[in-house]
Q: What sequence folds into this?
């Protein structure tokens, strides 16, 4: 490999390492959000309203304050 190609190849390797680093960070932040949603779910004085814009055909209940679903399985 010529020196110029070597530099580019090294840079690609560095970038791949960066991607792994960022992916780990995303996972960490996702876990934090999950934890916060659980906390919010417990703290909010929910007012459940029908959510007709649900992606699935059936409707579900959503809190008009915190925007979380009544069914906890829908929140994560
Ligand atoms: Zn709520």
A:
């Amino acid at each position: 490999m010529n020196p110029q190609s070597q530099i580019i190849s090294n840079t690609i390797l560095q970038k791949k390492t960066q991607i792994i680093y960022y992916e780990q960070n995303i996972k960490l932040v996702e876990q934090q959000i999950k934890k916060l949603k659980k906390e919010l779910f417990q703290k909010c004085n929910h007012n459940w309203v029908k959510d007709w814009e649900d992606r699935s055909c059936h409707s579900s209940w959503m809190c008009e304050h915190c925007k979380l679903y009544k069914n906890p399985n829908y929140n994560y």
The chain has a mean pLDDT of 91. The pocket of zinc ion is lined by residues 44, 46, 63, 65-66, 68 (CB under 6 Å). DSSP finds one helix and two strands in the chain.
